[in-house]
Amino acid sequence: MKEEIIIAGFGGQGVLSMGKILAYAGLMHDKEVSWMPAYGPEQRGGTANVTVIISDNKISSPVLNRFDTAIILNQQSMDKFESTVKPGGILIYDPHGITHVPTRTDISIYTVRAMDAAAEMENSKAFNMVVLGAYLKVKPAVDLDGVIKGLKKSLPERHHHLIPMNEKALLKGMDIVEKLK
Amino acid sequence: MEEVSLLKGNEAIALAAIRCGADGYFGYPITPQSEIMETLMAQKPWETTGMTVLQAESEVASIYMVYGGASTGKKVMTSSSSPGVSLMQEGVSFLCGADLPCLVVNVMRGGPGLGTIQPSQSDYFQSTKGGGHGDYKLIVLAPASVQEMADFVDLAFTLSSKYRIPSMILSDGAIGQMMEKVILPPFKPRQTAEEIIEQCPWAATGKPANRKNNIISSLELDPSKMEKKNVERQERYRIVEATEVRYDEYMCEDADYLIIAFGSAARISQNAVETLREEGIKVGMLRPITLWPFPSKVISKYAEKVKSMLTVELNAGQMIEDVKLAVNGKVPVLHYGRMGGIVPNPEEIVDALKKQM
Lengths: 181, 357
Prior knowledge:
The complex is a heterodimer.
Chain A: E1 2-10, H1 15-28, E2 32-37, E3 47-55, E4 67-72, H2 75-81, E5 85-93, E6 108-111, H3 114-120, H4 127-138, H5 144-154, H6 163-176, E7 178-179
Parallel strand pairs in A: 1-4, 4-5, 5-6
Antiparallel strand pairs in A: 1-3, 2-3, 6-7
Helix pairs in contact in A: 1-5, 3-4, 4-6, 5-6
Chain B: E1 4-8, H1 9-19, E2 24-27, H2 35-43, E3 52-55, H3 59-71, E4 76-80, H4 82-87, H5 89-97, E5 103-108, H6 124-129, E6 139-141, H7 146-163, E7 167-172, H8 173-177, E8 179-183, H9 193-199, H10 223-243, E9 247-250, E10 257-260, H11 263-278, E11 283-288, E12 290-292, H12 296-302, E13 308-313, H13 319-327, E14 333-337, H14 346-355
Parallel strand pairs in B: 2-3, 2-4, 4-5, 5-7, 6-7, 10-11, 10-13, 13-14
Antiparallel strand pairs in B: 1-8, 6-12, 9-11
Helix pairs in contact in B: 1-2, 1-7, 3-5, 11-14, 12-13
Protein backbone atom coordinates (compact mmCIF):
# COMPACT_ATOMS: atom_id res chain seq x y z
CA MET A 1 0.00 0.00 0.00
CA LYS A 2 1.23 3.45 -0.91
CA GLU A 3 -0.97 6.54 -0.82
CA GLU A 4 0.38 9.88 -2.02
CA ILE A 5 -1.81 12.83 -1.09
CA ILE A 6 -1.71 16.57 -1.70
CA ILE A 7 -3.86 18.81 0.49
CA ALA A 8 -4.06 22.40 -0.74
CA GLY A 9 -6.01 25.51 0.22
CA PHE A 10 -5.68 28.84 1.99
CA GLY A 11 -3.43 29.35 4.97
CA GLY A 12 -5.58 29.18 8.09
CA GLN A 13 -7.96 26.53 6.73
CA GLY A 14 -6.12 23.85 8.68
CA VAL A 15 -4.46 22.31 5.64
CA LEU A 16 -1.18 21.59 7.40
CA SER A 17 -2.79 20.26 10.57
CA MET A 18 -5.13 18.03 8.53
CA GLY A 19 -2.05 16.56 6.90
CA LYS A 20 -0.39 16.17 10.27
CA ILE A 21 -3.34 14.27 11.73
CA LEU A 22 -3.41 12.06 8.65
CA ALA A 23 0.31 11.36 9.06
CA TYR A 24 -0.19 10.55 12.75
CA ALA A 25 -3.03 8.20 11.78
CA GLY A 26 -0.63 6.44 9.39
CA LEU A 27 1.86 6.16 12.25
CA MET A 28 -0.87 4.54 14.40
CA HIS A 29 -1.31 1.95 11.64
CA ASP A 30 2.45 1.21 11.74
CA LYS A 31 2.93 2.69 8.28
CA GLU A 32 5.84 4.71 6.97
CA VAL A 33 4.78 8.35 6.71
CA SER A 34 6.12 11.66 5.49
CA TRP A 35 4.65 15.15 5.81
CA MET A 36 6.20 17.80 3.62
CA PRO A 37 4.75 21.32 3.84
CA ALA A 38 5.20 24.08 1.31
CA TYR A 39 6.22 26.34 4.15
CA GLY A 40 6.83 30.03 4.17
CA PRO A 41 4.86 33.23 3.83
CA GLU A 42 2.08 31.17 2.19
CA GLN A 43 1.06 30.12 5.68
CA ARG A 44 -0.01 33.64 6.51
CA GLY A 45 -2.92 34.13 4.17
CA GLY A 46 -1.80 32.89 0.76
CA THR A 47 -2.11 29.34 -0.46
CA ALA A 48 -0.76 26.51 1.68
CA ASN A 49 -0.20 22.92 0.73
CA VAL A 50 1.21 19.76 2.21
CA THR A 51 2.23 16.44 0.70
CA VAL A 52 1.47 13.42 2.87
CA ILE A 53 2.68 9.93 1.97
CA ILE A 54 1.49 6.82 3.79
CA SER A 55 3.21 3.62 2.72
CA ASP A 56 4.02 0.04 3.72
CA ASN A 57 7.58 0.61 2.54
CA LYS A 58 10.30 3.18 3.15
CA ILE A 59 9.47 6.48 1.45
CA SER A 60 12.03 7.84 -1.00
CA SER A 61 11.00 11.30 -2.16
CA PRO A 62 8.85 13.44 0.16
CA VAL A 63 8.41 15.81 -2.81
CA LEU A 64 6.14 14.63 -5.62
CA ASN A 65 4.49 15.92 -8.78
CA ARG A 66 1.82 13.20 -9.19
CA PHE A 67 -0.67 12.21 -6.53
CA ASP A 68 -3.15 9.40 -5.84
CA THR A 69 -5.45 11.85 -4.10
CA ALA A 70 -5.79 15.63 -4.18
CA ILE A 71 -7.83 17.42 -1.51
CA ILE A 72 -8.48 20.91 -2.86
CA LEU A 73 -9.91 23.80 -0.89
CA ASN A 74 -9.59 26.89 -3.09
CA GLN A 75 -9.55 27.91 -6.74
CA GLN A 76 -5.80 28.61 -6.95
CA SER A 77 -5.10 25.10 -5.69
CA MET A 78 -7.61 23.64 -8.16
CA ASP A 79 -5.80 25.41 -11.02
CA LYS A 80 -2.47 24.09 -9.79
CA PHE A 81 -3.26 20.54 -8.70
CA GLU A 82 -6.18 19.17 -10.77
CA SER A 83 -3.74 18.07 -13.45
CA THR A 84 -1.42 16.38 -10.93
CA VAL A 85 -3.87 13.62 -9.97
CA LYS A 86 -2.78 10.28 -11.41
CA PRO A 87 -5.24 8.74 -13.91
CA GLY A 88 -7.67 6.67 -11.86
CA GLY A 89 -6.94 8.83 -8.82
CA ILE A 90 -9.22 10.83 -6.60
CA LEU A 91 -10.00 14.54 -6.32
CA ILE A 92 -12.01 15.83 -3.36
CA TYR A 93 -13.02 19.48 -3.16
CA ASP A 94 -15.29 21.88 -1.35
CA PRO A 95 -17.41 23.68 -4.00
CA HIS A 96 -17.42 26.78 -1.78
CA GLY A 97 -15.29 29.35 -3.59
CA ILE A 98 -14.65 27.13 -6.61
CA THR A 99 -15.64 28.93 -9.81
CA HIS A 100 -14.06 26.59 -12.34
CA VAL A 101 -15.12 23.05 -11.50
CA PRO A 102 -12.72 20.22 -12.36
CA THR A 103 -13.12 18.76 -15.84
CA ARG A 104 -10.98 15.61 -15.75
CA THR A 105 -12.86 12.50 -16.82
CA ASP A 106 -10.15 9.94 -16.00
CA ILE A 107 -10.32 10.44 -12.23
CA SER A 108 -13.01 10.10 -9.54
CA ILE A 109 -14.25 13.46 -8.32
CA TYR A 110 -16.02 14.04 -5.00
CA THR A 111 -17.39 17.13 -3.32
CA VAL A 112 -17.74 17.85 0.36
CA ARG A 113 -19.61 20.96 1.48
CA ALA A 114 -17.38 21.32 4.51
CA MET A 115 -17.63 25.09 4.84
CA ASP A 116 -21.44 24.84 5.08
CA ALA A 117 -21.23 21.87 7.46
CA ALA A 118 -18.81 23.68 9.75
CA ALA A 119 -21.11 26.73 9.75
CA GLU A 120 -24.03 24.47 10.62
CA MET A 121 -22.01 23.03 13.50
CA GLU A 122 -21.28 26.64 14.51
CA ASN A 123 -17.61 25.78 14.59
CA SER A 124 -15.49 27.06 11.74
CA LYS A 125 -12.54 25.15 13.18
CA ALA A 126 -14.31 21.86 12.44
CA PHE A 127 -13.89 22.59 8.71
CA ASN A 128 -10.71 20.60 8.12
CA MET A 129 -12.00 17.60 10.07
CA VAL A 130 -15.16 17.51 7.92
CA VAL A 131 -12.90 17.42 4.85
CA LEU A 132 -10.73 14.71 6.40
CA GLY A 133 -13.90 12.71 7.16
CA ALA A 134 -14.82 12.87 3.47
CA TYR A 135 -11.39 11.54 2.57
CA LEU A 136 -11.67 8.67 5.07
CA LYS A 137 -14.97 7.62 3.50
CA VAL A 138 -13.67 7.78 -0.06
CA LYS A 139 -10.23 6.27 0.51
CA PRO A 140 -9.80 4.34 3.73
CA ALA A 141 -5.98 4.42 3.65
CA VAL A 142 -6.34 4.97 7.38
CA ASP A 143 -9.49 4.42 9.46
CA LEU A 144 -11.46 6.63 11.84
CA ASP A 145 -10.02 4.83 14.85
CA GLY A 146 -6.47 5.58 13.61
CA VAL A 147 -7.37 9.24 13.12
CA ILE A 148 -8.80 9.53 16.64
CA LYS A 149 -5.65 7.92 18.02
CA GLY A 150 -3.61 10.26 15.83
CA LEU A 151 -5.52 13.24 17.22
CA LYS A 152 -4.79 12.10 20.77
CA LYS A 153 -1.11 11.82 19.93
CA SER A 154 -0.81 15.12 18.06
CA LEU A 155 -2.93 17.32 20.34
CA PRO A 156 -1.58 18.49 23.68
CA GLU A 157 -3.48 17.05 26.70
CA ARG A 158 -5.22 20.36 27.37
CA HIS A 159 -6.99 20.10 24.01
CA HIS A 160 -8.15 16.49 24.42
CA HIS A 161 -11.64 17.66 25.40
CA LEU A 162 -12.01 18.79 21.77
CA ILE A 163 -11.65 15.26 20.42
CA PRO A 164 -15.41 14.41 20.57
CA MET A 165 -16.16 17.56 18.55
CA ASN A 166 -13.52 16.55 15.99
CA GLU A 167 -14.96 13.04 15.81
CA LYS A 168 -18.41 14.52 15.16
CA ALA A 169 -16.93 16.61 12.33
CA LEU A 170 -15.17 13.59 10.85
CA LEU A 171 -18.43 11.61 10.89
CA LYS A 172 -20.23 14.56 9.30
CA GLY A 173 -17.72 14.61 6.46
CA MET A 174 -18.08 10.87 5.95
CA ASP A 175 -21.82 11.41 5.76
CA ILE A 176 -22.01 14.34 3.34
CA VAL A 177 -19.30 13.48 0.79
CA GLU A 178 -20.81 13.12 -2.68
CA LYS A 179 -19.48 11.46 -5.80
CA LEU A 180 -19.72 13.61 -8.92
CA LYS A 181 -18.29 11.20 -11.47
CA MET B 1 10.38 -1.32 22.17
CA GLU B 2 11.80 2.13 21.40
CA GLU B 3 9.20 4.81 20.97
CA VAL B 4 8.57 5.99 17.42
CA SER B 5 7.86 9.72 17.14
CA LEU B 6 6.68 11.84 14.26
CA LEU B 7 8.94 14.88 14.16
CA LYS B 8 10.22 17.67 11.96
CA GLY B 9 13.92 17.43 11.16
CA ASN B 10 14.55 20.59 13.16
CA GLU B 11 12.76 19.20 16.21
CA ALA B 12 14.77 15.99 15.93
CA ILE B 13 18.05 17.95 16.04
CA ALA B 14 16.98 19.77 19.21
CA LEU B 15 15.79 16.65 21.03
CA ALA B 16 18.89 14.69 19.97
CA ALA B 17 21.14 17.49 21.26
CA ILE B 18 19.60 17.23 24.74
CA ARG B 19 19.80 13.43 24.65
CA CYS B 20 23.43 13.25 23.61
CA GLY B 21 24.50 15.32 26.59
CA ALA B 22 25.17 18.67 24.92
CA ASP B 23 26.22 21.37 27.37
CA GLY B 24 25.10 24.43 25.50
CA TYR B 25 23.19 25.84 22.53
CA PHE B 26 23.62 29.45 21.41
CA GLY B 27 21.62 30.69 18.46
CA TYR B 28 19.62 33.36 16.74
CA PRO B 29 16.31 32.60 15.00
CA ILE B 30 16.05 32.35 11.22
CA THR B 31 13.70 30.46 8.89
CA PRO B 32 13.74 27.55 8.06
CA GLN B 33 15.42 26.31 11.24
CA SER B 34 13.78 28.33 14.04
CA GLU B 35 12.15 25.17 15.45
CA ILE B 36 15.56 24.05 16.71
CA MET B 37 15.76 26.79 19.35
CA GLU B 38 11.97 26.81 19.83
CA THR B 39 12.02 23.11 20.67
CA LEU B 40 15.00 23.51 23.00
CA MET B 41 13.29 26.40 24.81
CA ALA B 42 10.07 24.38 25.16
CA GLN B 43 11.98 21.37 26.52
CA LYS B 44 13.78 23.52 29.14
CA PRO B 45 16.78 21.17 29.36
CA TRP B 46 18.41 23.49 31.93
CA GLU B 47 15.91 22.03 34.41
CA THR B 48 16.79 18.42 33.56
CA THR B 49 20.24 17.79 32.07
CA GLY B 50 21.57 21.24 32.95
CA MET B 51 22.10 22.16 29.28
CA THR B 52 22.24 25.91 28.64
CA VAL B 53 20.03 27.30 25.85
CA LEU B 54 20.55 30.92 25.01
CA GLN B 55 19.21 33.25 22.34
CA ALA B 56 22.13 35.50 21.50
CA GLU B 57 21.83 39.03 20.14
CA SER B 58 23.12 37.93 16.74
CA GLU B 59 24.71 35.06 14.82
CA VAL B 60 28.12 36.66 15.38
CA ALA B 61 27.55 36.61 19.15
CA SER B 62 26.32 33.01 19.07
CA ILE B 63 29.37 31.64 17.23
CA TYR B 64 31.69 33.35 19.74
CA MET B 65 29.64 31.95 22.63
CA VAL B 66 30.31 28.59 20.99
CA TYR B 67 34.02 29.52 20.87
CA GLY B 68 33.97 30.34 24.57
CA GLY B 69 32.09 27.21 25.57
CA ALA B 70 34.26 24.97 23.40
CA SER B 71 37.41 26.51 24.94
CA THR B 72 36.40 25.02 28.27
CA GLY B 73 35.92 21.54 26.75
CA LYS B 74 32.12 21.71 26.79
CA LYS B 75 29.95 20.15 24.08
CA VAL B 76 28.44 23.25 22.50
CA MET B 77 26.53 24.02 19.34
CA THR B 78 24.75 26.63 17.30
CA SER B 79 22.35 26.47 14.38
CA SER B 80 21.30 28.86 11.66
CA SER B 81 20.39 29.07 8.00
CA SER B 82 22.46 30.31 5.07
CA PRO B 83 22.61 34.11 5.64
CA GLY B 84 23.12 33.55 9.36
CA VAL B 85 25.86 31.00 8.74
CA SER B 86 27.61 33.51 6.48
CA LEU B 87 27.70 35.93 9.42
CA MET B 88 29.37 33.20 11.51
CA GLN B 89 32.21 32.50 9.10
CA GLU B 90 34.85 34.59 10.88
CA GLY B 91 34.11 32.70 14.09
CA VAL B 92 34.22 29.37 12.27
CA SER B 93 37.69 30.19 10.95
CA PHE B 94 38.78 31.17 14.49
CA LEU B 95 37.35 27.91 15.90
CA CYS B 96 39.36 25.96 13.31
CA GLY B 97 42.47 28.03 14.04
CA ALA B 98 42.11 27.30 17.75
CA ASP B 99 41.36 23.60 17.06
CA LEU B 100 38.11 23.67 19.01
CA PRO B 101 35.44 20.98 18.75
CA CYS B 102 31.83 22.13 18.30
CA LEU B 103 28.76 21.65 16.14
CA VAL B 104 27.32 24.15 13.67
CA VAL B 105 24.00 23.23 12.04
CA ASN B 106 23.13 24.90 8.73
CA VAL B 107 19.57 24.33 7.48
CA MET B 108 20.15 25.83 4.03
CA ARG B 109 17.82 28.19 2.19
CA GLY B 110 18.06 29.76 -1.25
CA GLY B 111 20.69 32.44 -1.79
CA PRO B 112 22.86 34.39 -2.32
CA GLY B 113 22.15 37.26 0.06
CA LEU B 114 18.94 37.03 2.03
CA GLY B 115 17.61 34.91 -0.83
CA THR B 116 14.47 32.90 -0.09
CA ILE B 117 13.32 30.84 2.86
CA GLN B 118 12.79 27.69 0.78
CA PRO B 119 15.18 24.69 0.57
CA SER B 120 18.52 24.91 -1.21
CA GLN B 121 21.95 23.29 -1.16
CA SER B 122 23.91 26.26 -2.37
CA ASP B 123 26.19 26.41 0.69
CA TYR B 124 28.14 23.29 -0.34
CA PHE B 125 31.18 25.35 -1.33
CA GLN B 126 31.02 27.44 1.84
CA SER B 127 30.82 24.33 4.02
CA THR B 128 33.40 22.12 2.35
CA LYS B 129 35.91 24.60 0.91
CA GLY B 130 36.08 27.04 3.83
CA GLY B 131 33.66 29.95 4.09
CA GLY B 132 36.12 31.85 6.24
CA HIS B 133 39.81 32.51 5.71
CA GLY B 134 42.74 30.16 6.08
CA ASP B 135 43.54 26.52 5.34
CA TYR B 136 40.83 24.75 7.25
CA LYS B 137 38.21 22.06 6.98
CA LEU B 138 34.99 21.23 8.77
CA ILE B 139 33.71 17.69 9.17
CA VAL B 140 30.48 18.05 7.17
CA LEU B 141 27.61 15.59 7.60
CA ALA B 142 24.62 15.70 5.22
CA PRO B 143 21.47 14.08 6.63
CA ALA B 144 18.84 12.86 4.17
CA SER B 145 16.08 11.99 6.64
CA VAL B 146 14.66 13.12 9.96
CA GLN B 147 16.20 9.99 11.50
CA GLU B 148 19.63 11.09 10.32
CA MET B 149 19.02 14.62 11.67
CA ALA B 150 18.63 12.94 15.07
CA ASP B 151 21.49 10.45 14.66
CA PHE B 152 24.07 12.86 13.28
CA VAL B 153 24.06 15.21 16.29
CA ASP B 154 25.91 12.73 18.49
CA LEU B 155 28.07 11.58 15.57
CA ALA B 156 29.04 15.18 14.78
CA PHE B 157 30.01 15.90 18.40
CA THR B 158 31.96 12.63 18.63
CA LEU B 159 33.97 13.19 15.43
CA SER B 160 34.52 16.83 16.29
CA SER B 161 35.97 16.14 19.72
CA LYS B 162 38.00 13.15 18.48
CA TYR B 163 39.86 15.28 15.92
CA ARG B 164 39.42 18.76 17.44
CA ILE B 165 37.83 19.91 14.17
CA PRO B 166 34.51 21.82 14.20
CA SER B 167 31.73 19.76 12.66
CA MET B 168 28.79 20.87 10.61
CA ILE B 169 25.42 19.27 9.93
CA LEU B 170 24.57 20.59 6.47
CA SER B 171 20.84 20.16 6.00
CA ASP B 172 18.23 22.12 4.09
CA GLY B 173 14.74 23.52 4.49
CA ALA B 174 13.11 20.36 3.15
CA ILE B 175 14.71 17.98 5.67
CA GLY B 176 14.35 20.58 8.44
CA GLN B 177 10.63 21.18 7.84
CA MET B 178 9.39 17.72 6.88
CA MET B 179 7.98 15.27 9.41
CA GLU B 180 8.93 11.61 9.42
CA LYS B 181 9.07 8.70 11.80
CA VAL B 182 12.10 8.85 14.05
CA ILE B 183 13.50 6.86 16.93
CA LEU B 184 15.38 9.27 19.17
CA PRO B 185 18.81 8.24 20.47
CA PRO B 186 19.06 7.09 24.11
CA PHE B 187 19.92 9.61 26.84
CA LYS B 188 23.61 10.08 27.58
CA PRO B 189 24.65 12.06 30.64
CA ARG B 190 26.58 15.30 30.15
CA GLN B 191 30.30 15.05 30.78
CA THR B 192 31.35 15.80 34.36
CA ALA B 193 34.02 18.42 35.08
CA GLU B 194 36.46 15.59 35.91
CA GLU B 195 35.76 13.82 32.61
CA ILE B 196 36.36 17.04 30.69
CA ILE B 197 39.71 17.59 32.45
CA GLU B 198 40.71 14.02 31.61
CA GLN B 199 39.52 14.01 28.00
CA CYS B 200 40.39 17.58 27.06
CA PRO B 201 43.86 18.22 28.51
CA TRP B 202 44.07 21.26 26.22
CA ALA B 203 40.94 22.96 27.56
CA ALA B 204 40.75 26.04 29.77
CA THR B 205 39.43 24.22 32.82
CA GLY B 206 41.36 26.02 35.55
CA LYS B 207 45.13 25.77 35.98
CA PRO B 208 46.46 23.24 38.48
CA ALA B 209 49.96 23.84 39.95
CA ASN B 210 51.54 21.02 37.95
CA ARG B 211 51.01 22.27 34.41
CA LYS B 212 51.45 25.38 32.29
CA ASN B 213 48.56 27.61 31.28
CA ASN B 214 46.33 26.26 28.54
CA ILE B 215 45.94 29.13 26.10
CA ILE B 216 43.16 28.97 23.52
CA SER B 217 44.04 31.18 20.56
CA SER B 218 44.29 31.11 16.79
CA LEU B 219 47.02 33.77 16.83
CA GLU B 220 50.73 32.98 16.54
CA LEU B 221 53.04 35.78 15.46
CA ASP B 222 56.04 33.53 14.76
CA PRO B 223 55.45 32.18 11.23
CA SER B 224 57.63 29.09 11.74
CA LYS B 225 55.49 28.13 14.74
CA MET B 226 52.35 28.93 12.77
CA GLU B 227 53.45 26.75 9.89
CA LYS B 228 54.09 23.90 12.30
CA LYS B 229 50.57 24.27 13.69
CA ASN B 230 49.16 24.23 10.17
CA VAL B 231 51.19 21.14 9.22
CA GLU B 232 49.97 19.31 12.30
CA ARG B 233 46.38 20.29 11.45
CA GLN B 234 46.75 19.13 7.86
CA GLU B 235 48.08 15.78 9.12
CA ARG B 236 44.90 15.41 11.18
CA TYR B 237 42.85 16.21 8.06
CA ARG B 238 44.62 13.41 6.17
CA ILE B 239 43.70 10.96 8.96
CA VAL B 240 40.06 12.07 8.77
CA GLU B 241 40.10 11.65 4.98
CA ALA B 242 41.53 8.15 5.35
CA THR B 243 39.19 6.93 8.09
CA GLU B 244 35.94 8.88 8.36
CA VAL B 245 34.41 8.84 4.86
CA ARG B 246 30.75 7.83 4.94
CA TYR B 247 28.36 7.24 2.06
CA ASP B 248 25.34 5.21 1.07
CA GLU B 249 24.91 3.18 -2.13
CA TYR B 250 21.54 2.44 -3.72
CA MET B 251 21.31 -0.06 -6.60
CA CYS B 252 24.88 0.67 -7.68
CA GLU B 253 26.19 -2.89 -8.21
CA ASP B 254 25.12 -3.30 -11.85
CA ALA B 255 24.59 0.38 -12.69
CA ASP B 256 25.40 1.79 -16.13
CA TYR B 257 24.67 5.31 -14.88
CA LEU B 258 25.34 6.80 -11.48
CA ILE B 259 23.43 9.63 -9.83
CA ILE B 260 25.34 11.39 -7.05
CA ALA B 261 23.26 13.45 -4.64
CA PHE B 262 23.16 14.36 -0.95
CA GLY B 263 20.48 15.41 1.52
CA SER B 264 17.00 16.13 0.18
CA ALA B 265 18.22 15.92 -3.44
CA ALA B 266 19.20 12.30 -2.71
CA ARG B 267 15.70 11.48 -1.47
CA ILE B 268 14.14 12.85 -4.65
CA SER B 269 16.80 11.18 -6.82
CA GLN B 270 16.13 7.82 -5.16
CA ASN B 271 12.54 8.06 -6.37
CA ALA B 272 13.86 8.81 -9.88
CA VAL B 273 16.12 5.73 -9.67
CA GLU B 274 13.08 3.59 -8.78
CA THR B 275 11.20 4.91 -11.84
CA LEU B 276 14.17 4.45 -14.18
CA ARG B 277 14.77 0.90 -12.91
CA GLU B 278 11.09 0.08 -13.60
CA GLU B 279 11.77 1.16 -17.18
CA GLY B 280 14.76 -1.20 -17.32
CA ILE B 281 17.42 1.51 -17.17
CA LYS B 282 20.28 0.48 -14.91
CA VAL B 283 20.79 3.51 -12.68
CA GLY B 284 22.25 3.62 -9.20
CA MET B 285 22.68 6.36 -6.65
CA LEU B 286 25.63 7.18 -4.48
CA ARG B 287 24.84 9.47 -1.57
CA PRO B 288 27.78 11.15 0.16
CA ILE B 289 26.98 11.31 3.88
CA THR B 290 30.24 13.08 4.73
CA LEU B 291 30.68 15.96 2.29
CA TRP B 292 34.10 16.42 3.83
CA PRO B 293 35.82 14.01 3.88
CA PHE B 294 34.36 13.44 0.41
CA PRO B 295 33.89 9.84 -0.82
CA SER B 296 36.32 10.36 -3.72
CA LYS B 297 37.74 6.83 -3.70
CA VAL B 298 34.44 5.03 -4.23
CA ILE B 299 33.44 7.54 -6.92
CA SER B 300 36.71 6.97 -8.80
CA LYS B 301 36.04 3.22 -8.52
CA TYR B 302 32.65 3.70 -10.18
CA ALA B 303 34.29 5.82 -12.90
CA GLU B 304 35.81 2.53 -14.12
CA LYS B 305 32.38 0.88 -14.36
CA VAL B 306 29.65 3.32 -15.39
CA LYS B 307 29.01 5.15 -18.67
CA SER B 308 28.38 8.54 -17.10
CA MET B 309 27.46 10.28 -13.87
CA LEU B 310 24.86 12.90 -12.98
CA THR B 311 25.05 15.07 -9.89
CA VAL B 312 21.70 16.30 -8.64
CA GLU B 313 21.96 19.30 -6.35
CA LEU B 314 19.71 22.15 -5.28
CA ASN B 315 22.28 24.61 -6.62
CA ALA B 316 24.05 25.66 -9.82
CA GLY B 317 26.57 22.82 -9.61
CA GLN B 318 28.91 22.75 -6.63
CA MET B 319 29.51 19.15 -5.51
CA ILE B 320 30.01 18.31 -9.19
CA GLU B 321 33.52 19.82 -8.90
CA ASP B 322 34.52 17.24 -6.27
CA VAL B 323 32.93 14.47 -8.34
CA LYS B 324 34.88 15.59 -11.41
CA LEU B 325 38.13 15.61 -9.43
CA ALA B 326 37.43 12.05 -8.30
CA VAL B 327 36.43 10.89 -11.80
CA ASN B 328 39.47 12.61 -13.31
CA GLY B 329 38.06 12.75 -16.82
CA LYS B 330 37.33 9.02 -17.13
CA VAL B 331 33.58 9.45 -17.79
CA PRO B 332 31.34 12.44 -18.49
CA VAL B 333 29.88 14.07 -15.37
CA LEU B 334 26.78 16.22 -15.79
CA HIS B 335 24.73 18.30 -13.39
CA TYR B 336 21.03 18.79 -12.83
CA GLY B 337 19.92 21.38 -10.33
CA ARG B 338 17.31 23.91 -9.35
CA MET B 339 18.06 27.13 -7.53
CA GLY B 340 16.58 29.83 -5.37
CA GLY B 341 14.43 27.56 -3.22
CA ILE B 342 12.82 25.51 -6.00
CA VAL B 343 12.84 21.79 -5.24
CA PRO B 344 12.91 19.55 -8.33
CA ASN B 345 10.43 16.72 -8.65
CA PRO B 346 11.50 13.15 -9.42
CA GLU B 347 10.29 13.39 -13.05
CA GLU B 348 12.74 16.20 -13.82
CA ILE B 349 15.60 14.00 -12.66
CA VAL B 350 14.34 11.07 -14.72
CA ASP B 351 14.32 13.36 -17.78
CA ALA B 352 17.78 14.77 -17.00
CA LEU B 353 19.25 11.28 -16.78
CA LYS B 354 17.57 10.10 -19.98
CA LYS B 355 18.94 13.15 -21.78
CA GLN B 356 22.52 12.16 -21.03
CA MET B 357 22.12 8.52 -22.08
